[in-house]
């Protein structure tokens, strides 16, 4: 369609009626296109057919009927076949599969952004995975890693003083993952975080007592929900994400 528009734009007003025919899988399908072209003099057939037998059929029938035709994909396939190893798969629609996978990732990343750090709890039932954990347990980076793999991920912070969103109790516990970490390791991480933002003297947040109290609360929540628990101590983001993926694969 883009090729047709680009070509016709070079002539006069650049206006042309374009009719699209997709999923042409047989000679009978192509005969319908040829008949439509015969009924509309001045029609040009521009096509991208992967299967050689269908390309040959359309080319020969169009020549026989005097219908101008342009094979867009065939010459490109022939050129690539001459320089690349192996043979073409000759499977129609592969490019659309790639596009669909790309758009799934984009949608998943957008979902993760809008469901990050407890935002928009109404989206929790739509998530493929829900990560629960106290502050600095890698919820957001793991969410984004999984989103780039095409999973819709929400993450919810656990704070003893803040009630959990009610939506969390209405989702399948099998897709909820609780993240925990060694208290001394977490205290060190929090101290570094406070130092990086110039608040190293701030009380409470990075105290061992506070960290241990939050971890006790988190474990109570995990037990209440009946969810799987992952220890992220000394784990890289991709390692934690792969453990989540492993649990999801077990479930499926």
Task: Specify the overall morphology.
Answer: elongated
Q: CA-to-CA gap between the ends?
A: 40 Å
Task: Record the strand order, biggest sheet.
Answer: 4-3-5-6
Number of helices: 9
What's the SSE blueprint?
Blueprint: H1 2-8, H2 27-38, E1 45-47, H3 52-65, E2 69-71, H4 73-83, H5 94-114, E3 129-133, H6 139-147, E4 153-157, E5 176-180, H7 183-196, H8 208-225, E6 228-231, H9 237-251
Parallel strand pairs: 1-2, 3-4, 3-5, 5-6
Helix pairs in contact: 2-3, 5-6, 6-9, 7-8
Description:
- The structure is a single chain.
- The protein is α/β, with parallel strands linked by helices and 252 residues long.
- It is 48% helix and 10% strand.
- The chain has 9 helices and 6 strands.
- A 4-stranded parallel β-sheet has the order 4-3-5-6, with helices on both faces. The chain has a two-stranded parallel sheet with strand order 1-2.
- Helix 2 packs parallel to helix 3 (52-65), helix 5 runs antiparallel to helix 6 (139-147) and helix 7 crosses helix 8 (208-225).
- It is elongated.
- The mean pLDDT is 89.
List keywords for this structure.
alpha/beta, 252 residues
């Amino acid at each position: 369609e883009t090729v047709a528009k680009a070509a016709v734009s070079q002539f006069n007003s650049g206006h042309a009626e374009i009719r699209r025919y997709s999923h042409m899988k047989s000679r009978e399908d192509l005969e319908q296109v040829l008949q439509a072209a015969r009924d509309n003099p001045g029609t040009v057939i521009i096509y991208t057919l992967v299967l050689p037998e269908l390309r040959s059929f359309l080319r020969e029938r169009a020549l026989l009927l005097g219908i101008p035709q342009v094979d867009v994909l065939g010459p490109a396939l022939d050129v690539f076949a001459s320089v690349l190893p192996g043979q073409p798969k000759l499977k129609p629609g592969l490019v659309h599969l790639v596009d669909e996978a790309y758009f799934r990732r984009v949608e998943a990343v957008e979902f993760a952004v809008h469901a990050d750090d407890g935002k928009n709890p109404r989206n929790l039932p739509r998530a493929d995975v829900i990560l629960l954990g106290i502050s600095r347990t890698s919820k957001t980076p793991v969410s984004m890693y999984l989103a780039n793999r095409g999973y819709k991920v929400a993450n919810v912070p656990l704070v003893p003083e803040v009630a959990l969103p009610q939506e969390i109790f209405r989702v399948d516990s099998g897709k909820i993952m609780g993240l925990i970490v060694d208290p001394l390791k977490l205290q060190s991480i929090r101290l570094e975080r406070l130092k990086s933002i110039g608040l190293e003297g701030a009380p409470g947040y990075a105290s061992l007592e506070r960290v241990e109290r939050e971890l006790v609360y988190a474990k109570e929540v995990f037990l209440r929900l009946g969810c799987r628990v992952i220890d992220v101590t000394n784990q890289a983001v991709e390692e934690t994400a792969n453990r989540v993926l492993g649990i999801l694969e077990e479930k499926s």
